[in-house]
Amino acid sequence: MAMQRDGSLTMADRVAPVLFLIFWSSGFVAAKVGLEGAEPLTFLALRFAIVSALLVPAALLLGSRLPRDPRLILHVAMAGLIMQAIYFGSSYMAFDAGGSAGGVALVLGMQPIVT
Fold it and tell me: What are phi and psi of 9, to 5 degrees?
């Protein structure tokens, strides 16, 4: 977090955690509603396509350095697949099987404790 000269937090540092909390927690409800009109993996692919279309240009505009080593690219891709696609894919399939947004969020929230 960036502090101003007087030691106080900037407005962005105060707002960012609140926005993160709102976006993250509303994701389960949005997924539950979105799955009423699409299959789980189709909806997930659409979600990832939209996010990629937004974040790749943002990363390029901000001058982020992308990995060049093929092994590192493979490592990052596999980590992303395991951490995101399987995580969200299984939660979306749980929604499709009738799981509630709160129940799925509770189970996924316990993941760090259980594993």
Answer: -75, 150
Tens of pLDDT, residue by residue, the chain (115 residues)? 565 666 677 888 889 899 988 888 888 888 888 888 889 889 988 988 998 899 889 988 988 887 889 999 999 989 988 888 888 888 889 988 999 988 988 988 888 888 7
Distance CA 12, CA 2 (A): 9
The domain locations on the chain are 11-114
Rounded-to-integer distance, Cα 53 and Cα 56, Å:
6
**With the C-alpha atoms ordered 94, 96, 97, 102, is the resulting torsion angle positive or negative?**
positive
Residue 25 in contact with residue 86, Cβ under 8 Å? Answer: no
CB 56 within 8 A of CB 64: no
Q: In the structure encoding, which two tokens stand for residue 86, read together?
A: 């399987």
Closest CA to 31 of 39, 49, 19: 39
Where are the strands (E) in 1-115, listed by range? none
